[in-house]
Design goal:
By secondary structure, the protein is α/β, with parallel strands linked by helices. Helix content is 42%, strand content 14%. Helix 7 links the parallel strand 4 and strand 5. The protein binds 1,5-di-O-phosphono-alpha-D-ribofuranose (RI2).
Length: 326
C-alpha cells in the first residue's frame, strides 16, 4: 500500500472498495463538499468504520498496514481542525490489541458509531446551554457556518425567543450564505453583512457566537479567518464573545508544545483568473487564532467554561494518556 498525493493506491492486490471509501471521503473533505470541524470529524470516523466493515482479507499484518495508510489519508485531507484527528483516533483506539481482523473490524465499527453519536449529542447539549444566553430583543452576531453556533441560535428561536442575527459573509468561501439560508429557513430574523462591516455593526450586538476548529491547551481558539477580528471588535465594544466547541476540538498536542498548522488554500478561491497582474502574490490563510483574553466563555458539552479551564478538562479526559511521549 502506498500513498500517492491524496489517493490510496494498492500495490499489493486488486482494487477493493475500502480504498474508494477512504479516497472519496478524503477528497470530499479536501474540496469542502464535507466541511465544518464537527462534520469532518464524523466523516473521518465513519469512513474508518466503513473501511473496516467492507475490508476483505484476514492477514492482521496487512490489515494494520492498510489501516495506517487509510488513517493517514483521512488525516492529510485538512490540517487545521483537530476534531478530525480526535475523531479518527478515538475510532482506532484499542485496535492494536485486536487478535484478528474480525475483532479489529468490530472495534473500529463500534468506536466509529460511538464517536458520531457522542459528537451529535455534544452539539445538541451545547445548543441547550448556549441558548440560555440569548434574551428577547438581543442582537446576535455569528461568523462562517458553525453547526455548534447555529445550534445555539436555532434552539433559542425554537424556545420562542425574539432576537435578530447578523451573519458575516465569510470570504473567500462565503460560508455565510449557508448560514443565512439555514437560519432563514428556520424562521430566524437574519441579516447578511460583509466581513468588513463587523466593527460598524458590533456596537449594536449583545452576544457573538462562533464555532471552533481547534482549541489549544491555553485556551486560544482557532477558527475561520476573521474570527479574531470579531473578538477584538467585541472586546472593544464590551460585547460577550462566546465560542461553541465540543471537547473533541481540544488539541492534546498543544499541551506538549505543538503549534496548530493554519491551512492555506488555493489562491483561485480569492480572485478569478486574470483579474489581477500576475506579479501580485496572494496569501489565503483560512483560519486564525483568537487569544483566550478575548473570549468570555467556551460553551462545551461539559458546560460553559472559561478558556483557562481547557487544560484541566483535557487532563481529566485524557487520564493516563496525558504523559508526554516522544
Ligand atoms: P462546526 C468551519 O471550518 C468553520 O471555521 C467553523 O466555525 C468550524 O468549522 C466549526 O464548525 P470550514 O470547514 O463544527 O468551513 O461548529 O473551513 O460545524
Amino acid at each position: 500500500m502506498e500513498i500517492t498525493g491524496n489517493l490510496l493506491i494498492s500495490v499489493k492486490r486488486d482494487a477493493v472498495p475500502v480504498q474508494d471509501i477512504i479516497a472519496e471521503t478524503s477528497e470530499r473533505i479536501r474540496d469542502m463538499t464535507i466541511r465544518g470541524a464537527g462534520r469532518i470529524a464524523r466523516a473521518g470516523a465513519d469512513a474508518i468504520g466503513r473501511f473496516a466493515e467492507t475490508y476483505q482479507g484476514n492477514d492482521m499484518e496487512v490489515f494494520r498496514e492498510d489501516l495506517r495508510a487509510a488513517t493517514r489519508t483521512i488525516l492529510d485531507s485538512r490540517p487545521t481542525a483537530v476534531s478530525l484527528w480526535n475523531g479518527v483516533h478515538s475510532t482506532i483506539m484499542g485496535v492494536d490489541d485486536a487478535a484478528s481482523v474480525d475483532q479489529a473490524r468490530e472495534i473500529l465499527m463500534r468506536n466509529a458509531r460511538a464517536f458520531c453519536e457522542r459528537s451529535e449529542k455534544a452539539v445538541e447539549t451545547i445548543a441547550r446551554i448556549g441558548a440560555k444566553r440569548i434574551r428577547d430583543g438581543d442582537s446576535v452576531m455569528t461568523h462562517c457556518n458553525s453547526s455548534a453556533a447555529l445550534g445555539v441560535i436555532k434552539e433559542a428561536h425554537r424556545q420562542g425567543k425574539e432576537f435578530r442575527v447578523f451573519a458575516t459573509e465569510s470570504r473567500p468561501w462565503r460560508q455565510g450564505i449557508l448560514t443565512v439560508t439555514e437560519l432563514a429557513e428556520a424562521g430566524v430574523d437574519v441579516t447578511l453583512i460583509i466581513d468588513s462591516a463587523v466593527r460598524y455593526v458590533m456596537n449594536d450586538i449583545d452576544e457573538v457566537f462562533v464555532g471552533a476548529d481547534t482549541i489549544t491547551s491555553h485556551g486560544a481558539v482557532i477558527n475561520k479567518i476573521g474570527t479574531s477580528q470579531l473578538a477584538l471588535a467585541a472586546h472593544e465594544a464590551r460585547t460577550n464573545f462566546f465560542v461553541c466547541g465540543e471537547t473533541y476540538k481540544f488539541s492534546p498536542m498543544t499541551m506538549f508544545g505543538d503549534m496548530v498548522e493554519i491551512e492555506e488554500r488555493e489562491t483561485s478561491e480569492v480572485v478569478r483568473p486574470g483579474e489581477i497582474p500576475e506579479s501580485v502574490k496572494i496569501f489565503n490563510p483560512v483560519f486564525d487564532s483568537t487569544p483566550a483574553q478575548y473570549i468570555d466563555a467556551i460553551i462545551t458539552e461539559v458546560g460553559m467554561v472559561p478558556p483557562t479551564a481547557v487544560y484541566s478538562i483535557m487532563v481529566r479526559q485524557l487520564g493516563d494518556a496525558v504523559f508526554y511521549k516522544e
